[in-house]
Structure formats: structure tokens, C-alpha cells
Request: fold
Amino acid sequence: MRPGLTLATSLVLVAGLAGAEPVALKRGVNGDLWNNWGSIAELRADPEALAVFPDWRRTVTPAMFQALTDQGFDFIRLPIDPGPALAAGPGPEQDRLIEGMHAAAQLALDAGLTAIVDLHPLPRGGEVGGIESILGSHFPDYATLVSRIAARLSDLPADHVALELLNEPSFDCEGVYAGAPPKWPAMQAQLHAAARAAAPDLTIILTGACWSQANALVTLDPALIPDDNVLWTFHSYEPFAYSHQGATWTDAPVKYLRDLPFPPSLLTPEMTAQIAEATRARMAAAEGQADAAAIDQTLRDYASTPDGNATYEISVAAGWADAQGIPRDRILMGEFGALHTADGISQPMEWYHAFLSTKRKAAEAAGFSWAVLSWSGDMGIAAPDAADRRMTPDTCRALGLPCGN
Reply:
């Protein structure tokens, strides 16, 4: 018996060997997460905030889902925050929120899309239901919640629905990079066992720790979860300084950068000087002073980044799949994308399209499925103010989609 697994868990996992084949995925998109980004306490205190869950069901229409199918997507990854359901605990409120997850998946199915229900918690500090509590003291409660969600999804078509157990486990980097005893593999095995016991035929999506990096995926031993009805996922945002420039949720100095081009070879000394000056001004205005040394180092690092670095994570995941005997069509690049507007400032779309095209082509060449992030917003693929959130022809071409053209 493998360390960290109980006898009951092991029996469940062995039983999973005889389960159904995993869903078939090719080209997908990540959906919305929240319209109301309040704390869980604020959401639960407002009778309207969680009256419709997930709350994007108020604004995302069946016609929008149908447009995704029309444009050539075959699946959608539906990020849904499990935090409010975990905070509610077992009972009528939790049941209602789980029912909303089921309804969200049904919207996708009605449009002819395969649906991934992606359990996507947020950093919420000490609040019950944030990623910190899920990976900490409330992990047993989360495993119970995962079991209940899997059971509710089990009445949907097994060949068109999958459950992703946890988006980007934001810990255990020491186990990935520093040789510390890993924590996440055994925890993921517990979540898998809970979901599989509740839903014998449901496809389950597994990932590595440390924000679902490819380098974390390759530290996993697939034999810990001997189940054929699983997919393995990783996320790809390199070069990070390009994809996350201007992202308020990341660290300085990247959050203050603008106008970095893609690929990195387009960055000239003149552009570097202009970007450095503007970044120092933004950082000083926001924080009272600018870390000029960190800004300059970040720009030097980006200028020296080989253009091919954007596909490195894909090659890492492909090597792992081959070494482990995992068919490459069971590997999902579950997120890739870039912020192309920030503070109302739009960057040249040809840079963004080059980034999407580079990632997409490499994933397809490796035999992987992919899901671009995101459907709308500052990282969105939808054209601004487009009817039914349709893409421009240039974005369609970058993603290799017909879009009815």
C-alpha cells in the first residue's frame, strides 16, 4: 500500500481502473468566475449575491454558449468558486449552491459543449472557503464537498462532463523545487478517492502543486492514482513578465509594467528605456518609491529570454507524459493567456495574437488539448462589445478556429 492511502481509499482507486474512458477534449475556453468579487462573508450577507450561483449565470446567455460552439470550441472550463459552499457546510444552502454548479454545466451541454467544472477558490486570507483554508484545516471538509459535487454531476452525460478537483494548488513549491517532502500528491489522492467513490464514471482532472506549473506536474507519480478515467492538466503563462504585465494581483515590478512586446526579441534598447521610466513612475505613484534595480533586472531578464521559452512548459509536460506512458491526448493545457488591456491601456493585439498562436500551436503539435484564458475581461478573447461575445477574425486565426468564416 502506498504511503498516505487508507485501505478503503486504495480499494476505491483500484475499482476506478474499470471505469469509463475520459472525456475527449481539443479546443476550449475558460469561462467567467465572479461578477461580484466580495468576501465570502459579504456574499453570504447579501441575499441577492448568491441568489443565482455562480453569479455569472445572470449575464452569460445560452446564445453566448452557442456562439462558442459555432466558432469551433468543443469544451468550456467553468471556473466555479467552491468557497461559499464550503463556508455554508452540508445543508440546504450548500445543496442549492451545488445545484447551481450543475445548472452551469447544463448550460454548456445544451450548447453542444463538453463542460469542465473547475473548482476554483480564491485567496481569502483567514476566511473559511479560501484556498488557504482548503489546503489547511478545512481540507477534510473540502474533500466531503468534492464528494457531494461529484455525486450531483454524476447524472450528467459522462462523456461530456469532467470535474477538476482544485485549481492551482498554491503551495508545496518546496516539494517541487527544494526537495521537501511533498504534501499535495497524497492530498490529491484523497480528493480523487472521494470524487470517484461518489461518481464512478465521472472524468476527474488532476494537477500538480505550486500553481499547476508543468514542473510540478512532472513531480507526480501517476501510479498513486491508478485510474484510467483521469486527465492531467498544467497551466502555461511563460514568459510571465509578458503575460501578467499590469496584473494588479501579481507582485511588483511586473504589476507596474506595460508595453512589453511578444516575442521578447522585439524588445529594443529604446523600448526598454521608455518602459523602465514609465514603470518607475507608476510604482512610485502607487508605493511612494520605485525599486529601480528590480525594474531594470526584470527588463534585462525579459530581453534575454529566448523566444522559444514560451513553449518550454509544453515540452516538459510532453516528456513527462511519454515517460509515464500517459497518452498525450490525456494532457490538458488548462490555462494560457495574457493581459492585453490594463488601466484602460490596450497593447498591440498582434503581440497578444502571436502569444496565443505560439502556445496553441505548440500544444496541438504535442497532442494536447488546450483552454485559453479567458472568455471576457482584460485577458479575454471576446471582441469588446461584440454580440454574444464573438471573437474578431484575427483572434480566431490565432487560435486556429474557423469561427464560421
